[in-house]
Structures are given as structure tokens and as C-alpha cells.
Design goal:
The chain is α/β, with parallel strands linked by helices. The protein is built from 13 helices and 19 strands. Helix 11 links the parallel strand 14 and strand 15. Bound molecules: ligand BES and zinc ion (2 copies).
């Protein structure tokens, strides 16, 4: 979708369709689409959030997009309206659309960003594997605004497209997207930018570096694990001593291993690499935006399978930082892979760590599909992550950490165990486990088990099941703030 911005007057704008958000109660409409007012006044135009209707008024094709109660209009409401509009257009005529911003609804920059995100994310189709799948696409989205929102729109377009890129990765099945494939995909992205490089460690190199944790998780699969490292070096970083270290869980499939999962919904575990996919796509976004912040990404990619060579409950592993882990549940594999990934990111120079992982089903049960949970060893850094999430639409809520939870991972045999049968505070002790590998300096952890991959549509602008691209917008916002 091509995105551009133009000033008023509306009659000078060339587009197949004119679209605008309609709150309840509605505003008087711009003269050019005044004819729509009759529909609004008679209650026929949609005001309900996310609903949209295409009509012809005064010789123009006009799309009214409901945004819900005026008093409740926020960026998410605008995203829902734009998504509803995108779906309506893609179910009918596609083509070019001019969206008339209404300064009375939300600040122009925030509104521009939300319209673009809503249209790009709301128009996403996860059915790439359907053999018959033609539908008219929206070719161009023009924002009509009195205030110049050109730069905001450009950035929002880039970030939204990379968010859909992350959704594509999460939706790819495990017979297609293996750890090796994911590493090659990251390399393909890096090849597009002079500022970006990518490499991947295989089992032999992992052995040399003492990465006994990811090696154990990956040993049960025919598909070899990879430790992916991407590096972004801008010419003039604003803070030369700061290196943002993004770490992602990249399980291309999680059967649970010997501690096998139940059968229902297991197909969704192709999305257990959503954190890693988000980190890889976010590096693409950072590079395309040319943000002046140094960044690396480490993705621990592996497949967790049961078999004759799988790791087992009772196994004791040694991670890259020398700490030992007693495995008490092979399905708590994400934290094991992240143990080596976090240590590797520190070794490669990360000063500020942020990991993203579909880590615990308990987080999904606690916060559902809208908020992720955030933990950290440094309140200021954690709060920066929370703020970037709130501003970006990737909502995240702070969770506590406390050394007292450490007893949940005490092992009789090793430095720690990876699972506690008492099942209390599961997301919290998982974070306590990760802290052991985060080294010195600020670290935050996002458990996105509920937000990364939807079993059911969320019913809002993310109207499709499957990958959400959660984390790409948050990371881009965080990186932009660190660039300032
Ligand atoms: N990948 C799962 C977590 C998950 C569950 C993500 C549902 C998305 C939706 C993770 O590896 C896992 O299996 N975690 C266990 C941890 C437990 C054994 C401590 C879980 O949540 O049951
Ligand atoms: Zn698991
Ligand atoms: Zn998992």
C-alpha cells in the first residue's frame, strides 16, 4: 500500500474513494462530503466502532467509518475505524482512498499514525496459502490533513509494513519456517541495508561457545537450531555508548518435547517464534527508518520435538554463562533457549536488553490477548518499555519481580530448575529464571504469550487469527525514543 499526505482543499485530491471517521455524536462534515450528513442525521451512517459503509453521495464514493462514542476516541478507536474501512474496501472495490483527518478527534500526528496502522494491519490477510485468494487491494492511502503529517505518516507506514512482515513469519508453518530458514530470512533482510548484518551459529559453533542450553532444546529435532545475530550500526548514533539489545524466543515449533503438550490448539505453536520474528522485523524497520541508535538482535531459533535424541526431564544443562539448569519440564523450553540468547547478547555488547517471548500460557490466562506483561531488573528501563508500548499500540503492563520468588526455581542438584510443579506465579518465576542470564545492566522481559499469536480474532483492528506482529511497533517506538 502506497502512503502519501496532502493538504486541503479536498476537491483537489484525486482518489477513488473518500473516507472519514464518524464518531457518536458526529461532527458537521466538510462541504465536499456534506451529502453524507443526510445519512448521519438519519442514523444510517455507521458510528459503531469498527463498522464501515460505502455510499455514493454527490457523485463521490464515500466511506463512513464508525469510531464509537466521541468521548472514548483514542488511537485504538481510530485504528479500529481505519481497519473496518480497509476491510470494507478490500471486500468491494479496492483502489485508492483519501482519508480526511478530523483534528477534533485526536491530535493530527497521533491520528495519522493510527489511521495508517489501522488500514495496513486491518487489511492483512493470513490466507497466503489459499489457492484461490484474489481480492481487490487498497493501492494507495492518502491522508488529507490541514497540518503537515508527512514524516509521521512515512514512519508509520514503514513500521506497519514491518509489523505485517512479522505476522507473515509467525503464520508460516513449521514445515516451511525451520530455524535454518529463519536465519536465512534474517540474512535476506540484512542484505537490503548497508547498515545491517546478520549471522547464525549452528550446533558446532554453539558447542564451542558453551551454549549447552539452546543445544539441548534443539537436539530432539531433525531441524538444526540456529543462534541468529543481527547488528545495526548507524553512521551517527545519538548515544554512541548505548547498544539496544533485542532478544527473541524463536521456537519454530513447540510440541512440549518429552513433556508433551495436549493436542488441542497445538497447531498454534508454530507461532512460538513470534518474539523472534518481531525482533527480526523490528531490525528491518529500524534500518529502513535509519534511526540513529545502535542495536543488535539475538534470536534463539530451535524446534522442540519429542524423540530418541530429545533432552529429558532430569537432564542438567550448562548455559553459556556457566550456570547450570536442571530440566524439570521440557515444555518450559523458551527460558532455556533465552538463557543462552541473553548471555550472548551481553557478550556481543548490548547495554540495554529487551527480550520478547511467547513464554507462559499463564500470561495468556492472566492478561488475555490485549496486554503483554513486562518484567525487569531496572524499574526505569522497564517503565521506558511500558511507555513505548502504550504509545505504540503494543500495550504492555508492568509485573513485579522479587528475589523471594527465586525459591520457586531452587534445585537440589543444579543452580536452578526451569519449572515448579506448584504452578504459582508462573510468569514471575519464569522472569526470575531469565534474570540469572541477563548479566549486568538494565534488562526487561516481555511475556507476549497472549498477544503474539491469536487463537481467535481479537475483534478489533487485529481481526484475523494468527500472528499479530506484537512488539514491532513497541520496539520501533523505543528505538526512536533512544535516538532522540
Ligand atoms: N510456548 C509455550 C507458552 C505458550 C502457551 C505460548 C500458550 C502461547 C500460548 C511455552 O513454551 C510453554 O509451554 N510454557 C509452559 C511453561 C510451564 C511448563 C512452566 C506453559 O505455559 O504451560
Ligand atoms: Zn513449551
Ligand atoms: Zn514455547
Amino acid at each position: 500500500m502506497e502512503i502519501d499526505v496532502t493538504g486541503v482543499p479536498i476537491e483537489a485530491v484525486d482518489a477513488d474513494t473518500f473516507a472519514l471517521a464518524i464518531p457518536d455524536p458526529a461532527d458537521p462534515l466538510p462541504a465536499e462530503v456534506e451529502g453524507l450528513w443526510t445519512l448521519v442525521a438519519s442514523g444510517e451512517a455507521p458510528t459503531q466502532r469498527g463498522s464501515a459503509r460505502l455510499v455514493h453521495v454527490d457523485g463521490r464514493r464515500v466511506l463512513g467509518a464508525g469510531v464509537g462514542p466521541r468521548a472514548e476516541v483514542d488511537a485504538d478507536a481510530i485504528r479500529d475505524a481505519a481497519a473496518g474501512a480497509a476491510r470494507e474496501l478490500q471486500a468491494s472495490v479496492g483502489g485508492s482512498v483519501a482519508w480526511i483527518l478530523d483534528p477534533a478527534l485526536l491530535a493530527p500526528e497521533e491520528q495519522a499514525r493510527a489511521v495508517i496502522e489501522g488500514a495496513v494491519l486491518g487489511g492483512y490477510d493470513p490466507g497466503a496459502w489459499k489457492t484461490q485468494n484474489d481480492r481487490p487491494l487498497i493501492e494507495r492511502l492518502t491522508l488529507v490533513s490541514e497540518v503537515d503529517v508527512g514524516e509521521t505518516a512515512r514512519q508509520a507506514g514503514v513500521v506497519a509494513e514491518w509489523t505485517n512482515h512479522a505476522r507473515d513469519l509467525a503464520n508460516r508453518p513449521a514445515n516451511d519456517l525451520t530455524p535454518v530458514e529463519l536465519a536465512e530470512h534474517a540474512a535476506g533482510i540484512a542484505a537490503r541495508f548497508d547498515t545491517l548484518t546478520s549471522s547464525g551459529l549452528g550446533p558446532e559453533e554453539m558447542l564451542v561457545r558453551g551454549m549447552g542450553a539452546i543445544l539441548a532444546v534443539g537436539q530432539g529435532s531433525q531441524n538444526e537450531p540456529r543462534m541468529i545475530l543481527m547488528r545495526y550500526e548507524p553512521t551517527w548514533p545519538t548515544q554512541p555508548d548505548l547498544v539496544l539489545g533485542l532478544v527473541g524466543k524463536g521456537m519454530t515449533f513447540d510440541t512440549g518435547g518429552i513433556s508433551l503438550k495436549k493436542r488441542d490448539y497445538m497447531e498454534d505453536m508454530k507461532g512460538d517464534m513470534a518474539g523472534g520474528g518481531a525482533v527480526i522485523a523490528a531490525m528491518g524497520a529500524i534500518a529502513e527508518l535509519g534511526l540513529p541508535v545502535r542495536a543488535i538482535a539475538v534470536v534463539g531459533a530451535a524446534e522442540n520435538m519429542p524423540g530418541g535424541s530429545s533432552y529429558r526431564p532430569g537432564d542438567i544443562l550448562t548455559a553459556m554463562n556457566g550456570k547450570t539448569i536442571e530440566v524439570t519440564d521440557t515444555d518450559a523450553e523458551g527460558r532455556i533457549v533465552l538463557a543462552d540468547a541473553l548471555a550472548y547478547a551481553r557478550e556481543e555488547g548490548a547495554t540495554h536488553l529487551l527480550d520478547l517471548a511467547t513464554l507462559t500460557g499463564a500470561m495468556e490466562r492472566a492478561l488475555g490477548d490485549f496486554y503483554a506483561g513486562v518484567f525487569g531488573n531496572d524499574a526505569a528501563w522497564r517503565d521506558q518499555v511500558v511507555a513505548a508500548g502504550e504509545a505504540s499500540g503494543d500495550h504492555a503492563w508492568p509485573w513485579p519481580m522479587h528475589p523471594r520468588y527465586g525459591r520457586f526455581i531452587e534445585s537440589a542438584f543444579a543452580d536452578m530448575k526451569n519449572h515448579n510443579i506448584r504452578a504459582q506465579g508462573i510468569p514471575v518465576y519464569a522472569a526470575e529464571f531469565l534474570r540469572e542470564f541477563a548479566g549486568e545492566g538494565p534488562w526487561a522481559h516481555i511475556d507476549m504469550a497472549g498477544t503474539g499469536f491469536l487463537t481467535w480474532s481479537r475483534g478489533d483492528y487485529l481481526s484475523q487469527k494468527g500472528g499479530t506482529g506484537y512488539g514491532v511497533r513497541l520496539i520501533a517506538e523505543l528505538a526512536a525514543r533512544l535516538s532522540a
